[in-house]
Amino acid sequence: MTNHWIDIKNADSILIIGSNAAEHHPVSFKWVLRAKDAGATVMHVDPKFSRTSARSDFHVPIRSGTDIAFMGGMINYVLENGRYYKDYVVDYTNASYIVSEGFEFNDGLFSGYDPKSRTYDQSSWKFDLDSKGVPKKDPSLKHPRCVFNLLKKHFSRYNIENVSSVTGVSKDNLQKVYSTFSSTGTPDKAGTIMYALGWTQHTVGVQNIRSAAILQLLLGNIGVAGGGINALRGEPNVQGSTDHTLLYHIIPGYMAMPRADWQTYDAYNKANTPVSTDPHSANWWQHKPKYFTSLLKGWYGENATAKNGYCYGLLPKIEKGADHSYMFLFDRMYNNEITGGFIIGLNPMNSVPNSNKVRKALDNLDWLVTQELHHSETTDNWHRPGVDPKKVKTEVFLLPSAHRVEKEGTVTNSGRWLGWHDKAIEPEADARSFGAAFVPMMNEVRALYKEEGGKLPEAITLLNWPKTYNPEYWTRLINGQFTKDTVVKGTKYKKGQQVPSFTALSDDGSTMSLNWLYTGSYTEEGGNKAKRRNPQQTKMQANIGLYPNWAWCWPVNRRILYNRASVNADGMPLNPKKAVIKWDGKKWVGDVPDGGWKPLSSGKGKHPFIMSKHGHGQIFGPGRKDGPIPEHYEPVETPIDSHPFSKQLSSPVYKFVDSSMDKLAKPADPNFPIVLTTYSLTEHWCGGGETRNVPNLLEAEPQLYVEMSPELAEEKGIANGDGVIVESIRGKVEAIAMVTVRMRPLKVKGKTVHLVGMPFCFGWTTPGTGDSTNRLTPSVGDPNTTIPEYKASCVNIRKADKLTEIEM
Q1: Cα–Cα distance for residue pair 590/564, rounded to 1 Å
Q2: Of 318, 205, 338, 196, which is closest to residue 251 (Cα–Cα)?
Q3: Which of 263, 272, 687, 808 has the highest CB neighbour count under 10 A?
Q4: E strands, 491-648, where?
Q5: Which superkingdom, per the lineage (predicted)?
Q6: What is the structure's pLDDT at 804?
Q7: Would residue 222 count as lying in a domain?
Q8: What is the pLDDT of residue 686?
């Protein structure tokens, strides 16, 4: 989230899209209701009517997978009707930048596309630079190649007629949403966009979010109270886990994973440290060598020196372009390229797409170590229905896990707030938390490497690794410490003391930190700030609900990102009634500013978007693998075979794996004409591996069902409560029919398209509940993140004579 949960109450207009916030984030939804009570308009754009829809001013049904068409229509509406905040757009975004002549967009494809490799050469996606290397600008926004005019031309195709025909949203609903939300494009109003997995789990997931960024920049809704782009995480610590490297392509603090073509420490820093010659650009990533060096010192301690490149040579390095995400991991496993592994705290046999394939893939391992609270479809994969355990070679070890109430530590919520939770009770018997199991296990591995050697044993033996697991100890290391006596802004720190802020981190080996973003969370002066529970605020802070002394927020306890975009060049709030920060003549007051420089009018200030190389919000965003501007592409499985925006049907660069089990339905396949979307339930957490073992939750939601409209039910001869079979080209699933007006047919390109929805939280290890919905979903993913397209695939449905266990 650019903002935080409480800040939602400051919004004048709230667009919830790709999320059922009331049911999946019920505690946070209270802030939506606070905003509504204060007069805000709440709009819910979603294929299904839900509790969120019921509490909104209006619900807008949409065909899943067409969000960019919907958002592109709103961007076009804002541009055509002059509803953008011009001063903000000119001063704080790259709308005025001149794009180089080599950049083109023709019929669904950007310049540089290679159809053989299915990739883009992005060299033409750049800006014209002046003699000093600063992007050329046209503040009048009249230059034909300035970003503003390229954007206007790009989205001119997204008129209400075209958008309606593709999305299935009525013209009246489009007009209503566009008019309402774009009214926030003034300094005295703010609108926020709330999204969740319904937006990310698509082959265009990243560009869905880019469309929101563009819209919010046009309206001046970034950096302000009640504004922002706010991701609703599906689990309490998703934000923390990504900050600390849940994903294969990054290391802690969102720095790039070392690659084979960056063989040395210097080569890594050169490739990953942007250079800006604009004196008003903070270009904050220029400090990356300080954060990277401090991380290496955290990993290898005194063994990491300048002479050996801080042990960079010991790090594993992935090949350029390599993909080690789930989709490709299980494909390699399916092809017998992996012999063993650890699966801890997750249930991929239930939650990874094309589950029939991934379950077979797991059979190919020689050994598997799991650690769980309960038996799951993953721990027990070797004796799933229809499989003879004697024919599965995998030796499976199941380690008992402690429950979250049986351990202490931190979680980082969606708003980037770092909070501490205490241990309620000791775990029973031999159960351990993941950390308490992993740390001593790693010590045994280190001992073996020291004794027996192996390939590059130093990568393991030289690690700065503790003998026992202590969450408070790790929290201190994550913040960072001085490795020698140091003076920072006149204050003396001794070796081993806590680093006060990431501005004190250095690339000379004098500091270590396991995550630069969290530096400042555990200091000598403030202790463990995750434990803070002080509601004290200044009057200015209380006006917008900032609570700066409650827990701690990365970075540097800043609650609203890019908050210097909420003030003018003199440092005065654009909206004084809901000021985030303010220059009082000597210093900034309110939230922690994103940089302590004086206001821009002083001549010594910096542009507000400090993480961008040139300091401006990126309307034109080079760096994405599928284009610098969002473009509508159909889901890989789609009920139509053309659309009015271009001849390019689906993303030309979406990711996929190719095996005999990875079949895809052709566009407009008459055998699979129905759009399936999947979702979570309030009563079951994620894949249900834990909550299916809680009797009252299982009683509330006891079995797999499929929601369908009365019109589809009548067409198929299905009554509410009937057993049905839902089938994709990859497999079949049994479910109970829920015939409901919450789902409705849509008119798409003049024909009726039916949508159905299914939860994914049930599995065969809980008798009588059914099995994984993900046996239906395809192994295709976003080209930037490889997140699978769970939310839009094609199926058919029929009434079942009787329900029996279906294997395929």
Answers
A1: 11
A2: 318
A3: 687
A4: 491-493, 511-512, 522-523, 527-528, 552-553, 581-583, 588-590
A5: Bacteria
A6: 66
A7: yes
A8: 86
Predicted TM-score (pTM) of this structure: 0.97
Tell me the three state secondary structure of residue 638.
coil
Residue 745: CATH number of its domain: 2.40.40.20
Name the token pair of 322.
């390599």
For the cut 50, the answer to whether the pLDDT of residue 807 exceeds it is no
Report whether 247 contacts 240 (CB < 8 A).
no
For the chain, how many residues are written?
808
Q: Could you tell me if residue 507 is inside a domain?
A: no
Residues 307, 640: contact at Cβ < 8 Å?
no
pLDDT tens-digit map of 615-646: 999 999 999 999 999 999 999 999 999 999 99
Residue 806 has a CB neighbour count (10 Å cut-off) of 17
371 pairs with which residues across the strands?
Answer: 344, 399
DSSP SS3 for 310: helix
Question: What does the alpha-carbon distance between residue 436 and residue 416 come to, in Å, rounded to a whole number?
Answer: 25
> Which residue has 């799933």 as its token pair?
384
Residues 227 and 356 in one domain: no
Q: How far apart are CA 614 and CA 95, in angstroms?
A: 12
d(CA 485, CA 511): 10
Average pLDDT for 431-459:
95
17 in any annotated domain? yes
**Residue 759 exposure: Cα atoms within 13 Å on the Cβ side:** 25
CB atoms under 10 Å from CB of 363, counted, come to 16
CA distance 233 to 448: 39
| Residues 581 and 550: beta-carbon distance below 8 Å | no
Last residue of a domain, one of 219, 236, 253: 236
Task: Encode pLDDT of 167-179 as tens digits.
Answer: 999 999 999 999 9
Tokens standing for 645?
A: 């925006």
Q: State both tokens at 321.
A: 């372009």
Q: For 588-615, write each residue's pLDDT tens digit.
A: 999 999 999 999 999 999 999 999 999 9
Tokens read off for 647: 């001849």
Mark which of 211, 236, 261 sits at the end of a domain: 236
CA 411 to centroid of chain Cα atoms: 16
As a whole number, mean pLDDT of residues 70-90 equals: 98
Cβ atoms of 287 and 507 closer than 8 Å: no
pLDDT for 803: 67
Within 220-310, where are the H helices? 238-243, 265-272, 288-300
- Does the N-terminal peptide bond of residue 608 adopt cis geometry, omega within 30 degrees of 0? no
Average pLDDT over residues 495-502: 97
DSSP 118-130: TEE-GGGS-B-B-
Q: The tokens of 477 are what?
A: 């290391």
Its domain, for residue 213, covers 6-236
Three-class secondary structure of residue 163 per DSSP = helix
Query: How many H helices and E strands in the chain?
Result: 22, 35
The helix or strand, by DSSP H or E, that contains position 52, with its residue range, turns out to be: helix 51-54
Bridge partners (DSSP) of residue 795 are 674
Higher per-residue pLDDT: 26 or 750: 750
> What's the domain count of the chain?
3
CATH number of the domain enclosing 11: 3.40.228.10
Q: Is 487 exposed, middle or buried (0-12, 13-18, 19+ CB in 10 A)?
A: exposed
For 623, the token pair is: 């760096």
639 in a domain, yes or no? no
Q: What is d(CA 549, CA 308) in angstroms, rounded to the nearest whole number?
A: 41
**Is the confidence at residue 805, as pLDDT, over 60?**
no
Distance of CA 165 to the CA centre of its chain: 29
Residues 6+ apart with CB under 8 A from 315: 258, 459
Question: Which DSSP state fits 501?
Answer: -
The number of angstroms, rounded, from the C-alpha of 98 to the middle of its chain's C-alpha atoms is: 30
Rounded to the nearest integer, the mean pLDDT of the chain is 96
**Residue 482 pairs with which residues in a beta bridge?**
511
